[in-house]
Every structure is written in C-alpha cells, then in structure tokens.
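REVIEWER CHECKLIST
Item 1: Sequence provided? yes
Item 2: Single chain? yes
Item 3: Sequence as submitted:
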Amino acid sequence: MNKYRVIQWATGVVGSAALRGILRHPKLELVGVKVYSDQKEGLDAGDIIGAEKTGILATRDVDAIMAIDADCVLYCPMPWDLAEMCRLLESGKHVITPCPYWFPFIQNREAAAAIDAACKKGNVNLHATGCNPGGIAERFPLTFTGWCNRIDRITMTECGDCRTYSSEGVMRELMNLGKTPEAASNNPLKEMLAKSWYEPIDMIAAGLGSEIVSYEAKHDFILANQPIETAIGIIEEGTIALNHYRHIGTTREGTEIIQEQIWYLDDIEQTRLQSKMDIPRESGWRIKLEGDVNLNIDIDFPAELTQDERVAQGLSTTAFHCVNAVPLVCEADDPGIKTHLDLAMVTGCMGTHVTER
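Item 4: Structure as written out by the authors:
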C-alpha cells in the first residue's frame, strides 16, 4: 500500500498533536517538519514530541520545505499566511488546516478566489477542519438535522475554563482574555473573528439548501476581580476573564443558526470574576436543535480527566480531524476548496484492511 507523504507545518499545541497523529496513522508517512524557533531547528521530529526518533529533522527554511516531495501539508501556524498557503498549493501539495477558510465563499470571497486559483494551478485541494470550527460548528449539527423536518433554530455552544490553554496568540488575541474592554473593542482581529464564525453558519445554511440573509454579532464579557494565574501568565485584575460571543445568522426561511462561545478563566463558581454568568455547562460542547424535533447533544470528556487533560484532548481533536482527513482530501476529484459538504465522512484509521462491497 502506498502511503501519503505528509509535511507537518508548525509544532505548537495543535501542530505537535498533529505530528503525533501522522506518525501513528497507518496510511501516512512523515517527510518534513516546519518549525519557527531556534530551539527546534534541526531537532528530530520525534524529539519535538517526546517520541522515538524518525530521521526527519525540523527546519525553519520555507524554501527547503517547499522543495520536499510531499502529497499533503498539515498547515497549523498561528497566525496563518494566505500567500504561504497558496504557494504550497501551487507547488502541487494538498493543504489541510485548522485555520480559517472552512467555507470562505461568502465571507472571504477574495481569499476563496486566490485559494481556488492556487488549487487549480497545483491540481490539488485545500480543506479546513478541526474541532470548533471544523466539527462542532457545522459538520456535527448538520448530521443531526437529518433527524428533523422543520428546524427553527440550531445553536452550537462551547464552554471552557481556559486557564491551562497554553497558546498565547489564541487566548489574548482571538479570545480577548486579558485585554481591557477598550482593547477588545478595538481589536484589529474583530472583523476576521466574526467572519470565522459566520463561515460555519454559511456552511450549515448551504447544507440545509438555504442561505443566510442577515447576520448579527453580540459580545459580552466579565472582568477579573483579582489577578488570575494561567498557562500564558497572569491575567490582571480589571481585564477580561470571561468572554461571551454570539454570532447569529438567519436563513431565508427564518431558521436561526447560532455560534456561541463562553471562554472563561475560573472554575464554574466564578469567584475570581466581578460578576457571574449562568454558564450552561462547565466545559465541552452542546448542539441544540429546535423545531418539530428538539435535541440537546452534549459532547464531553470524561469527568475523571484533569483540566489539563481535557484541554490537551480538546486540542488533539482538532489535530486528529486534520490528520484523518488526509486520504480523503488527497483523493478528492476536481481541484479546489473542499468543505465537509464535499467530502465523505472523516473517520479514524486503525488499519489498512478494505472490505469489498
């Protein structure tokens, strides 16, 4: 059996989990690793994640990575670079990423056009996936709509104590945790973040055979009443310690599609916050469908896991969704952007046996 030759681009918290997943996947072969720090330059890929040596040495040299003969790149940097992604695609390498462009055709038309042109030039595909967005936000709720006939509202809620989340870029820039209200209001990423949540809303609408005719964004927060210790340092008193986002799209037929995030830096009692919010769950995700069939689908990690373990496994779900999509993306016809509406079901892979049917 031929294996798909894969490059891991970036080895942060998600990239390291993806690297581990590539090494374990029976249909994949690691052929390159792109890193950003001097400390990781020249290290064996196995040493980066505490695994056995692989013979593949990490490099910071973009041109060296571009020159590698590979089928696919798992592209996981923060921040991402659209020009870099297009260069990879033009070089004939499929790209799978947890970064935006899950369904960019409405919110990011220029980016979608650039990606599509690069895909056609390289005769390859791009697929954006992950946990949320990438799974909870659109793929999973669409699956459960198959049990329904009339749908009034679809709500995806993510709740989580983020104190042990170690990605400073995500925590401070995307989640606004540790920012003052003024800095959050003026965050240059604000519009990009809204578009990132509108993309899965657009995908759900398209999956339902509809389109969004109006969008709305709501942003509430609660400040810390004391310094809070986190994996990215101290969150100061008077800065944002609970961030509540709601992005809402309404379809032509009147169905509401809501993406909700409640990210906070405390336990469920919220004693470190200036006020309290009625949080629907301590951590995890809830998909709620309302209509002629009413469903609450809760997705949890086992209660016996520590908070550190929950965060680690949550990040792993993003990485492994990318890893498991490699064969499907590499085999998909008609070069271009492939969303969950275009691909077959992404599953885990424990072996190489194929049953004739």
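Item 5: Key structural point noted by reviewer: The CA atoms of residues 25 and 349 lie 7 Å apart.
Item 6: Recommendation: ____
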